[in-house]
Each structure stands twice: as C-alpha cells, then as structure tokens.
Amino acid sequence: MSRFRFPVGRLPDEALLTGLATGDPELAVTFVRRFQHTVFGVAVAVTGDTQLAEDIAQQTFERAWRHAQIYDSRRGSVKTWLTTIAHNLAIDAVRARRPEPVAPEDLDVILGVVSNTPEQHVLADEASSRLRAAVAELPREQGRALVMASIYGMTAQEVADWENIPLGTAKTRIRTAMAKLRTTLASPKRGDHVQ
C-alpha cells in the first residue's frame, strides 16, 4: 500500500526524479516504469542490439539516480534529459565496439589488391564493382583517407593523426575523394547508352 495520499503515478516527472535522488524505493520504481520504454527504445535505435540496449537502459537510470541533483528544468524536460543520457551512452557503446581499423600502412596493400577471392565473389555485384574500381582510381592519399573515414568510421581528426597531416588536409582529402566518387559513379558506364 502506498504511503502517499494520492497515486504516485500522477506525480510530475520532476517530483519523481527528486524522489529517485532521495532513494525513495516507491518513487524510484515509478520513475523507472514511466521512462523504461523510452530509454530502452533510444538505446535499441542507436545500437541495434537488445542485450546491449538493456545494459544501456540500466546505466541510464543509474546515472540519473547519481546525477539527479544537477538536472535543470530550464534546459529541457526530464524525458529529454534521460533520452540524452541514453543516447550518449549508446553512442559510446557503439564506438567502443567499433572494430580496430587497419593500420594505415596496410591500406595501400588492401586498396591495391584485385584478386579473385571468395569475399570478392560475395561483393561482386555491379554496384560494388564500380565502387571498388572508382576508389582504386583515386590518388592513393585520397583513397586512404576515404577508406579510413567511410569504412573504418574514423573522424577527420583521427585520419589526420594516423596520416601525420594537418586536419584541414585530411578533410580536403576526404571531401575531394567523395566528390570524385560521386562524379564517377553518377556518370553512365561505357556500354550503358540506350540506342
């Protein structure tokens, strides 16, 4: 039986957050139940992994409990605050799970390989063949920067650090490579002319 004179489910979000901060178990349970679907939904949307999303949801509520006193209603609603926490935790989890990039010195070998492997057969449809050919035609430094950014998810700053070049140069290489690819892939192939 609730020790409150009215149903705690009707309390405003801010009051439930305050109750969470004080450690009141009834208010904490009500708070979690009110926001659990939203928080879990954000985590699943970002990670695509329900198990990981459950962990992120739990971490979100733990962080809300630890930092409830710093919540500022002028900066947004409790729901917005919680979903921001969940989103940031999910992004961090995805980044942490990102595979290690290939060392930049090995990219020359990877970009230069044109062999008949099982992987190539899987990726041998027309679009991927055109893309691979277009990337192979790029100047080596632009191709490397593009592969590091697009395939390995490195930021321009990370590319600059790996390549030991200024940030502006890394951005220019990536941007120029993307523009060249767009132009190459947008133009019709030889033999595609309609008679």
How would you classify the helix and strand content by structural class?
A: mainly alpha
In DSSP terms, counting alpha (H) and pi (I) runs of 4 or more, how many helices?
Answer: 10
| Amino-to-carboxy terminus distance | 81 Å
> What percentage of residues falls in helices of 4 or more residues?
55-70%
Rg, Cα atoms, Å: 25 Å
Coarse shape: elongated
Order of helices and strands: HHHHHHHHHH
Characterize the largest beta sheet: strand count, sense, and whether it forms a barrel.
none
The total of beta strands comes to: 0
What is the residue-averaged pLDDT? 78
Q: Strand-residue fraction? A: under 5%
Contiguous low-pLDDT stretches (5 residues minimum) are: 113-124
Provide an overview of this structure:
With 195 residues, the protein is mainly α. 70% of the residues lie in helices and 0% in strands. The chain has 10 helices and no strands. Helix 2 packs across helix 4 (78-97) and helix 8 (140-150) packs across helix 10.
What are its keywords?
10 helices, 70% helix, 195 residues, mainly alpha
In short:
The protein is mostly helical. It has helices at 13-22, 25-47, 50-67, 78-97, 104-112, 118-122, 126-137, 140-150, 156-163, 167-186.
Which SSEs are present, and which pair or pack?
Layout: H1 13-22, H2 25-47, H3 50-67, H4 78-97, H5 104-112, H6 118-122, H7 126-137, H8 140-150, H9 156-163, H10 167-186
Helix pairs in contact: 1-2, 2-3, 2-4, 3-4, 5-8, 7-10, 8-10, 9-10
